[in-house]
Amino acid sequence: xxxxxxxxGSHIRVGRVVAGxxxxxxxxxxxxxxxxxxHQIADALLKLGASGKVRIGIGCxxxxxxxTGKVVFSPNLGWHNVDLAFEVISVAEEAGLEPLxxxxxxxxxxxxGEFKCGAGRGIRNLAGVFVGTGIGGGLVxxxxxxxxxxxxxxxxxxxxxxxxxxxCACGRRGCFEAYAGGRAIEAHYERxxxxxxxxxxxxxxxxxxxxxxxxxxxxxxALAHLMxxxxxxxxxxxxxxxxxxxxxxxxxxxxxxxxxxxxxxxGWSAVDVVVAQLRGEATLVGAALLAL
Amino acid sequence: xxxxxxxxGSHIRVGRVVAGxxxxxxxxxxxxxxxxxxHQIADALLKLGASGKVRIGIGCxxxxxxxTGKVVFSPNLGWHNVDLAFEVISVAEEAGLEPLxxxxxxxxxxxxGEFKCGAGRGIRNLAGVFVGTGIGGGLVxxxxxxxxxxxxxxxxxxxxxxxxxxxCACGRRGCFEAYAGGRAIEAHYERxxxxxxxxxxxxxxxxxxxxxxxxxxxxxxALAHLMxxxxxxxxxxxxxxxxxxxxxxxxxxxxxxxxxxxxxxxGWSAVDVVVAQLRGEATLVGAALLAL
Lengths: 292, 292
Description:
Two copies of one chain form a homodimer.
Chain A: E1 2-7, E2 11-18, E3 21-29, H1 34-47, E4 53-60, E5 63-65, E6 70-74, E7 79-82, H2 84-94, E8 98-105, H3 106-117, E9 126-131, E10 135-141, E11 144-145, H4 177-180, H5 182-193, H6 199-204, H7 210-233, E12 238-242, H8 244-248, H9 252-264, E13 272-275, H10 282-290
Parallel strand pairs in A: 1-4, 4-8, 9-12, 12-13
Antiparallel strand pairs in A: 1-2, 2-3, 5-6, 6-7, 9-10, 10-11
């Protein structure tokens, strides 16, 4: 039996995956202690009908090491060097299961999910860009997930967009995330208007509110340039755009694709920009498939 | 016996490679017709002592398809869809050889050479950035050369540095090459001073000539940001900086590395920026090793 888990900063979701689809899932507020999280996962597995040999893939926010099964650092969870695979295996074995556990960064898992069962099916070279509070990303090159030197392959949100530009949450200046991440969009709008709104609320105001239009115009420009970076540096065939902000802002992906095509120019083959298909289940599905 | 060939816009070099080093080579002005180039290669092989079974790797400027052995498009050579592997095999067989031919883009071959026998030895994830007239590049990820969707993997020179910036030779605006490629540096200096000098001549004037300092300051800023792009998007361990301009501008790579470290900020592990070691022989060696 195959299961996936998605450990985010606020919630944990565990689901049973059959033929690349989530057939049943359980969602809870995530606990802070790794051992308690391991218990949450084991409890969920049992409730989802797990018995005997089970494969479980866990997508976790933060820097993870798939080789050792450790969460190296997860700022959202407050974890440093947590041996999550060991914790999950221990608790699951106590519960009578024979678990095979795989750990991956949540965004990498989501990109893998889209690659295998979503908007990236049928190609070999894919980039995923997920716009939520920040901007996460991942790369599949020649059919393999790129982890990079320190597990941060595809973390495109912190590539530079404007030299010496806006200060980013990461401490550097001018990162793509500082222009097109949800939090950055909201902060930019607040600087202009004094009003605090969600990125998706600012999105629907674009036609009537020039500040909203200005903020989103800059964010779209940044995302279009990010597509250009991905096509130039990695020469991917397709970029999947996803994440909460993309899901909630109707037509955003099309605007980004159009702005990107305008930048590419004639004589260059443009990369395909498409919307993610698995939405909130991408990490869960991808993590499960990485456990195969 | 193992041979490498480097077909550039002006010269062709063919060399015998033993243990990752060029033991003997022949250099000629490159002909324009593919068949004549094939004859140049076969003649050089014979002069270099080839007989019987030979492996030859050819690094060629332009977009190539290693699977089919074709040069898809080489603007410098004026070639479109040239079946170079077939031409070389035909001529070499007529000359009594039993050739095994591999074709690769010249910059990709150079990066592979540095990866196997130069400044990239001992690591798994490497980017190469070669600054000459333009900026070429290549990527090795998890020990494999990245070709990308259309053979342009690692062509980092045409990633964007400044949105809507200087017009690049490629037709787009703001590419890294438009700020830090040799031709762009020379054009920038000419715009400021009316004087046409080589990039390396402008480099030595930096201390006394404020225009030269300004041009190179911008180029170094661009190259430092390019390192940031490579570390963020691909999370490589090391970037090898090479090419004619880097070779002729003493201390340039150190300046780029220092500027890049200044951008990275604390708490981020910086990628290692080093100078290429194989210099003019990187393509020849790398192409030969790709034929193994």
